[in-house]
Amino acid sequence: MSTTPTPAPMTGRKERRDGDTLLVIERRFRAPIDDVWAACTDPERMERWIGTWSGDPASGSVSFRMTAEGEDVAAEEMDVLACEPPRRFAVRGREPQPFSADGSGDTAHWHMELELTEADGVTSLTFVQVLAPGALGTEMVASVGPGWEYYLDRLVAVFADEDVDGVEWPAYEGGSGYYRETFA
């Protein structure tokens, strides 16, 4: 049974930082910061809502594989840019990826960060993705914005002790228009 309103609300916003355009999405959890950090970094806990990783982060890279996308999704090598438990984690894909609907055209790197803060028993998670400049960035956010909303809502479901399968992808599919308009 779906727990997601259809269409799902798109909450991402555009920010500028150090000359980069960023996609920023926030979620709040009535949970301690250490618990939210573990849900976002422990490969066994991550598998429930997004994926898992392997390797040694101390080496500066890990192999990340999204498990909610199916069994045949290839792992991607991610460079660990920052790991500051329990407040900040940043990674960047080693190989640039296409963001067009058919997988062709210009490519850009995945560069994402999680920032966590806690106040009064509530942990705020801020997801940030650095976008490519220009039209590629707009195409990129139209492609990935609804997906990040979907995955972060699956994390919310985990903390609400709900079935993550109740967060159904079709509710998010129409979100590309919101992101194209917001980031144009």
TrEMBL record:
Domain of life from the UniProt record: Bacteria
Any Pfam family: AHSA1
InterPro entries: ASHA1/2-like_C (IPR013538), START-like_dom_sf (IPR023393)
Domain Activator of Hsp90 ATPase homologue 1/2-like C-terminal: 30-159
Family: Belongs to the AHA1 family.
Official protein name in the record: SRPBCC family protein
Organism: Nocardioides oleivorans
Lineage: Bacteria, Bacillati, Actinomycetota, Actinomycetes, Propionibacteriales
